[in-house]
Task: structure prediction
Amino acid sequence: MAALQQTGWQGELLENEPMARHTTWRVGGPADRYYRPVDIDDLALFLAELPKDEPLFWVGLGSNLLVRDGGIRGTVISTSGLLNDISQTGEMTLRAESGVSCAKVARFAARIDLVGAEFLAGIPGTMGGALAMNAGAFGGETWDVVAQVETLSRDGQRHVRMPSDYAVSYRHVDGPKEEWFVAVDLKLEHGDGKQAQANIKELLAKRGATQPTSQPSCGSVFRNPEGDHAARLIEVAGLKGHSIGGASVSEKHANFIINSGAASASDIENLVNDVAARVLQQTGIALRHEVHIVGEEGNSAG
Result:
């Protein structure tokens, strides 16, 4: 892509940016371009100037994401820590931009005596990512509490969409093409904020006790098959601790793959595929990964 003329946008545009800096697995080759917008209006200006055929990829906290060692061709839009406004918009509604962490939304809601968002504390990502995949934790799913969303199309136009504009299912969302989530209004209920805060604390303690939260991972790797749990199937197959290169199945939670610090993206992808193949061979159940695997194969980028 030819160099962009900076005629209005004010964000930071980096070239050949290593994605290992921006994913929770700490792996991934370089993105051709990596844009950090100032706000939604700035992002709209930037998108309007991009060529129509420029590949776009959006990244929040970089959880639930494996970027291959060859990196990403095109432009990555970063929202984490950038599109991070959150506010109460009505008696029982709040608005969060797509870069706000799910945990922050849960705590904010509890502080203003709104309940129903506590489960978000268990999702290790941003609201944009949670909306894109209908992320869930502790029995709750993101789209259960969505009132409406705001999107940007690649020509920089803003749109307000209702839940009825999307087909939402377990860890999957289909909606208008070439639009990306930049904010969401959540519909919650009045309740006991102190109890909600206590519930959040309990949920996070449970997460810390059962998941390897102190080690580089992407969160859960595989979707749970109907009526079962991926972690149970992986454990039954004897795969806890199983490793390829610097990647290994967590001893603490079998649906997590850990980067020991020396893993390449290909180590991780090979282990994901190997675990699925062994579970299928031993149980007859085909696991589907919920982690998004993107980019091009290639040599590990330092």
Summary: The two ends are 24 Å apart (CA to CA).
